Batch of 2 targets.
Target 1
Amino acid sequence: MNKVFIKHGIFLCFLFSAAQAYANDTLLLEDYLEVVLKYHPLIKKADINNEIAEAYNLKGKGALDPKIYSDFDRKRFDGSDYFSVWQSEVKIPTSLPIDFSLGYENNDGSFLNSENSVPDNGLVYGTINLSILRGLLFDEQRYNIQYGELQGLKSRIEREILIREVVFQATNAYLDWTSQNNSVNINQDYLELIRVRHQNIIQLFINGDSPAVDTLESRLNINSAEKLLLESRSKLIKSKQNLSLFIWNEDGQALQVNSDIEPMSLESLVSTLQELSILINPNFDLDPLIAKVDNTIQGLALDTRLEKENLKPQLDLKYNTILNLGKTEFDPTFTTNDYKYGVSFQYPILNRKTRGQIRINESFARQSEFEKIEYLARLNNKFEALISQQEIQENLLNVALEKLNNSQLLYEAELLKFDLGESSVFLLNRREQKLLESQIDLLKTYHTLGKTFGEMYYLKMGQ
């Protein structure tokens, strides 16, 4: 395609008056996107997803946070101290099916339950909780850790999706602005050209070398050109308004594009977009929208794994070592004969709630798999279609450039005949209109090709 640009560069000078050397008032695509990525509110919103991801990871790790609690009960009635029970404990969860805890117990009273009787200085105990069946391979603590990681990954994926969408929309807005700006320039040049000739025709009429109807024909041509210019200016204003939605300053204020700010030339813009869109051997499995579906599937698999763990009977072993701190004086004593242990068992007989939830999760996971397959096919089809569309648009560009060349030659020939008195104002106007149509056709072809490269760039940003 670059050969096409070089081959027909001589005609682009006629078409794109904005293709002069860039001045300080030219807003390049690179600088424009830099401002968008730095200050746009939706980009800042997307960046907050990094903080959300870190928060989810922190929340997941919270499943292993040590916990401390203290419980104190006292009863006094009719002048008697019935009992005073005080127990404090620190529990230390782990990522294994074992939890540890360390506690202190000190109880007294006239009517204290005998099982709560302890030495005067209290008891220190250490506890080991071991899950034998349910929770041996997977439990809620490990679920919370992995769930936090998945939610954090999801937040980062959503950040990529949002940034890509903003950049894509911003690029399209810049392309539209550039096209409309060129359209105004073309119509402005055309109007100025026929206005100058209109004055010449009036002078010819005054000199008696041209009939009065020629002045009317020339004026009618000006009316049409003025209408086209006003319409193109209206579209330019709309494109600038759309462009302004993407330009913000560091204080969070939307900025307006000044009238003296010009875009880069359409030819240069399309070349830049072509370079940005080069995509070889794409792997759409990496696309953030696909990654989001994968994240959903992984989350459902994690939920299902926890539910399947709940299908198992719960059998927990609990063993307490006891350290006697002394009956009257502080005298820590430890013996293996002082201990407390327990076994707990439970199992829902039907387990319909758990089995139903597993079926729900598996159904949603299958739906997500089909969604992924369909979206992957859509991305691949879109890529192939854009490749074909690019080839067609490049061929159309060649045709449009040749058409412009031929229209220019015919116009120059008709102008020479008119100067020699061998043509009419009507025929000359027709040649000018055909030349204008060729310019607009070339402009539209560049714009469509730029859109195609923009779509390719969108796909590339997902790699």
Target 2
Amino acid sequence: MIYALKERIGHPSLFCGRKQEMELLTTWADRIPKELAKSRALLGCRKSGKTAIMQRLFNILWNRNGKVVPFYFEMQDQDVWILNFSDLYYRTFLSHLFSFLERTPLELDNKPWNWGALERMGRRVENDKIMEGMDEFRDYLDTENSHNAMMFAFGAPARHCAYTGLFFLVMIDEIQYMTEYIYKDKEETVQAVNLPGAFHGIVELKIAPMLVSGSYIGWMTKMIKEMFVGGRLKRMPISPCVTFEEGMEAVYKYAAHYQMEITEDAALAVNVITQSNPYYISSLIGSEWPERDFSSIQGVVMTFASEITDRNTELYRTWQEYIRMSLKKVNDRHGKQILLILSRERDRELGRDEILAELGWPLRMSRCLRRNC
């Protein structure tokens, strides 16, 4: 397979498991030319494999070279003026379209091609409508008409169905960042907090359905409720863990990748202690702890303990970052207490009344919350 989009997972062979998810999504993508595919949202915590799944789906559809053109766009957690964002979004779309039409792999960092390269490709495909659209969009850039540029860019996949006779799958990774990091003004003082609402009608188009993802589930769920009302996005939970068998496969693949010998008992211990989580497996086997040991079960346990307690390890820093972002979004004086309660009792489900009792809230507060929910 040609990996037209360089996958962040690294070597393609390190994509482990996800058989059920990939079969579901490829079957869903097969329905797009029949106009039967409803837009979806992948929901899962950070490092749960959403990006890997979307990028692998892109490469599968690109290699099929059929009627569905994949378009993958990753939102960044950095401030940007909406006009510059629209330019980046539209050029990325055109880059993926021309990559598909000309069978040309993308840049390794998925950087979109510049306008000069895009114009040359546009002339080669000999499609006047595509060229006219590029001219119209650049007029919006020149006049700094940010609203029209944004609407034109977001609607591009649907319009190009008519221009090309093809269908499109629009994939936006970490879409919730649109509510915080994009600004209406050049000075970047006014946030476009409702920007995902611009997809309100577009998301329902069966000729160019959307597959979006979000890592901060509470934030993502709130955005879906407010800006994609009426069930416009079908939710698809993504577990950070794969099946036990797929986890064992991941252990041996990563051990081979790191050229590390591992005993059968140690491999089993790695899979069990990480709960068949590929990210944990890769972090554990790639440990740089000077005393790391994969020759015994005890060695695996000690190595894992180092990875989750050392403040300089990737696992520790990833969870610290996730917790900080979550608490920032909760922004509630009881948020930390609730987080600690749920973490302490992570092996069982807690009812609302139990959480309120732990917090020391009066029973009348529980009744009030129940009436409001």
